């Protein structure tokens, strides 16, 4: 792999200014010139089309405000009907991860086509809305057409980055486009061009590299594969509209926090995080998705500077900007159903799943009438939407069911596409350790295969695989796919060897070699966020399996499935050979092509993969190539081939000497802190607190003044039925670092009225995963504020998985209680007074 440093044009320009000695207005003009240099005008090669622009202008002049706003609304298939499409004429719609036609996970290709056809016909039916503008369907086909049963699922982007093969990436994108078009879909929300700087981020596997150059090259290749080359078959019958995402800086948030805050300088924002847009927009990408994250505290969905001044102005992007899943609702002052700020910032299409689409539609119309949004801004947005639709030929193409690839189900999961995926799997594997040239293996050996990932296509495919999180799948949900075990069994048995498979590494006949397949369980987005990269922290079951085999004198080959590099020093020590397989997708059998020689002993496929992410030397620090004092365990670009000398021994440090600094995690202080929401529940009823007073069934909450305005909450339980108040997050939080330091949940509380019944304090860690205990005796009526400290160990003893906490605090009871809350936090400091302990 060629190692190239990120370019530093902006840094050079800034030093030039510093030496020039300019001041005053000259300095301001020079500063503006520098900003223009930071953000270059992108040349796409798409020729100006005066006739098309005239058609757009004419069509725009004939549209009503209602028709224009409808073009800016993108609802989700679970939240609208065909009749809604006929009535409103939405410009686009989407299926989110885990959304299927007829809400059926096993919907057939024909089911997808049928829905696409119905929605299209409703959009061009002008009987209700007066509009004949065709709609378009967008989908997250991020590693193949991953929502569709039987599709070819390619390695996730982190694996593709290790191949360093842009030509292969273009083939993958072209194959994906074909499989998408079989189902009548026009538009793909890919590629993700995040440059990941902290591997604790749950979307690390969606990034190609920590290096901007690979991301830039790959972005161009993916866009060409999806859309076609600008000078050849651009947006032809076998191509789809692509989306470069997420603009901007999502891979550089503090602490790897999904949807968090990026505090990089503007120069670094361009040099590191924007290079994928230089590549993708240069290849002609027609849409850009705004990012959930903030830049220096400002939500990107509301940033006029980045969306309008930079992207559309300085970089010259003439397609449209689409929001992410209700991302506009995260702008301060906005809700999912009311957000003029996003349109004014430059958002052209609101992605608005759930039933918030209707109030958003109505509010946008009202806001134009009121002057809160200029008519010119609406016209600009709709012009951009129409431009993309005309470039894609949607006004001329036949309906989805009549297009050339539509219904050709043999294309989905075809042998040709699986062959491309197998090549990608082989080239993505990175060999980290190979003591005494253990690999390649003879296929004539007696091979033991063990580990949870060996016969698990869902695990090897990761998130965004049929379901959004990639969970809840079985091998049968991937027809045509192969597990890693499938490939090993085929290769070995064909050569006359023997395979024993046991999940826990048990065997009848002593094997010559053990192949253990283990790693991360599937996740997507915020569910994968970690505060620490140590693998199986606190529950080293896979390490125990490796050690058991090694102590038995059996050579161990580890195949590590993961969406990121992880601190696996102990697992490396317990392995004779160690392979980073990343998330290979549905073609797991290709791994055996590299592990084993041919039957005659000749090399079949050597290892080619090279690390596009540095491998960590401790579980907390995240080092990237080019950083000062760069000293990872294995550097960017590392990867052994069979002829290379092994570099890792069995003596890696298994205890980190790096201390993790933990700040208090504030849950509530004057207000509920992001990302939490205060939720009331009574029986089956549930409501999120959105005003100063809220009630549902047997529980009510109101704000009041303790020390400053509305800094406390009064909670009343009537005792009519079981009711609860809890803090809830959309994604889980990893709180293990706090419990490891004997941390506590601190609660400032005043009991207004107590009762002789249980008051349960609890935490939730997902469906069927919770812990709670009765604190009624500790909270007798005192009418005085007190700080109660609850040992986090109490929750772990109750079965709470502290690595996946969705609700860090909840109170529930069936009795009549009145309790007030002023502050809630989780701290690593261990108070000794007023402690609720389970010891």
So how many helices? Answer: 23
User: What is the terminal-to-terminal distance?
Assistant: 54 Å
Specify the biggest β-sheet: 9 strands, mixed
Q: Give me the count of strands.
A: 32
Q: Pairing-aware structural class of the strands and helices?
A: alpha/beta
Global morphology: globular
Helix fraction, binned, reads 25-40%
Q: Give the averaged pLDDT, no decimals.
A: 92
Beta-strand level of the residues, as a percent range? 15-25%
Using only CA atoms, what is the Rg?
Answer: 28 Å
Low-pLDDT segments, ≥5 res:
1-30
Features:
6-stranded mixed sheet, disordered N terminus, 23 helices, about 850 residues, globular
What do you see in this structure?
It is a single chain. With about 850 residues, this protein is of the alpha/beta class. It has 23 helices and 32 strands. Strands 18, 19, 22, 23, 24, 26, 29, 31 and 32 form a nine-stranded mixed beta sheet that branches. It has a six-stranded mixed beta sheet with strand order 12-17-16-15-13-14, with helices on both faces. A six-stranded antiparallel beta sheet has the order 21-20-25-30-27-28. Helix 5 runs parallel beside helix 6 (about 110-125).
